[in-house]
Every structure is written in structure tokens, then in C-alpha cells.
Amino acid sequence: MHTPGTFVVVLTLLVLVLAAGCTSEDDGGLSATPTMVPLPPTTVTTIPVTEPPTPVVTTPTPTQTTEPVQKLPAERQVNLLLTKDRPTSEIHLLFQGGPGEIYVTRIIMRVYTSDVAYQEYIMSKGSKPIPGDEIVAPGTRSGDRCEVFVISAGSRYKVIDERVYGGMYY
Fold first, then answer.
1. Structural domains of the chain in order of their starting residue, each with its CATH number
2. Where are the alpha helices (DSSP H) in the chain?
3. Phi then psi dihedrals of residue 11, to 5 deg
4. pTM of the complete model
5. Cβ pair 148, 93 in contact under 8 A
6. Are strands 91-95 and 104-112 parallel, antiparallel or unpaired?
7. Which residues contact 32 (CB under 8 A, 6 or more apart)?
8. How many CB atoms lie within 10 A of CB 80?
9. Contacts of 122 (CB under 8 A, 6+ apart)
10. Residue 145 forms beta bridges with which residues?
11. pLDDT computed for residue 58 by the predictor
12. Do the Cβ atoms of 139 and 157 come closer than 8 Å?
């Protein structure tokens, strides 16, 4: 008696033999010409392609410091003169020395020409300032806000925070 498993194996071998078939180009005129059979209409669903977001490199908007003006300790007092030139609108910060000049390592001035844009200037190109050193910064014809920081004995002090005027013509 034949088992169903034997029938499946024989049928599989028969299909494989027929599939192997003839590999030559000459088919003796037995090849069929292909005919086009129309397929039923299909609906195409489109999947929206989401591209990864383009990385946006943003520079942080500088914000004006809100720390209060600090007074230097008595032994570290220095004299700074902040003025604005009338015809050129240049802002001048003059270091005049003082009892604490030996402690001063750096003087930095920030000039805000608008509410958010500022330029930072360092006196004496970052080296220890000496009396008579000056920062000259371009300003605008309107009032410019200036912040002056003194690095004294390793501590940072905000010593000036004011608007300077003087570039207007009369």
C-alpha cells in the first residue's frame, strides 16, 4: 500500500524534472508567444516619506547680564574713566591705576549697540593693564550700554554698567 508521503515525494520529483526541462535555445517551434493579460485595477497607497530634520546650528543669543554693579574692596580700588567721543561716537575706557592696580589681572568691556548684540573688548590684549591703558570701541550715535568687568585677585567684579551718550551732533 502506498502512503500519502510517497505520493508527495513522487509528485515533487515530477515537478522538479519538468521545471528543469530543456536548457537549449532551440525549442523546435514549441514556444508559446506571450500574451498580455490585463490585471484588475489596483489602488496605490502612497506612504509619505519623512526626511530627518535638517540640523539647525544656532548660536546662542547673547543676553545682557543682570548682575548688579559691585564695589571693589578698599584695598583693590582702581580708577576707570568711561567716556564717549562726540564727533566719532567712539567709546573710551581709560585705566588710571589706583591702590588696587597690583591685584588687577584683566579688564573687560562689553559694548551693547542694540538690545542683544554686543562686542567684548579686553584691555592690553589680555595682559596685565598698566595705568594709561585704554580701550577704544566703536559706538553708535544713540546711547550705547557699557559693562566693565575687572578681574582682581582671581575674582570677577562688574564695576560699571551704564549707557553712554555723546555721539549726537547739535
1. 74-164 (2.60.40.10)
2. 4-20
3. -65, -40
4. 0.60
5. yes
6. unpaired
7. none
8. 19
9. 106, 107, 108, 135
10. 112, 163
11. 42
12. no
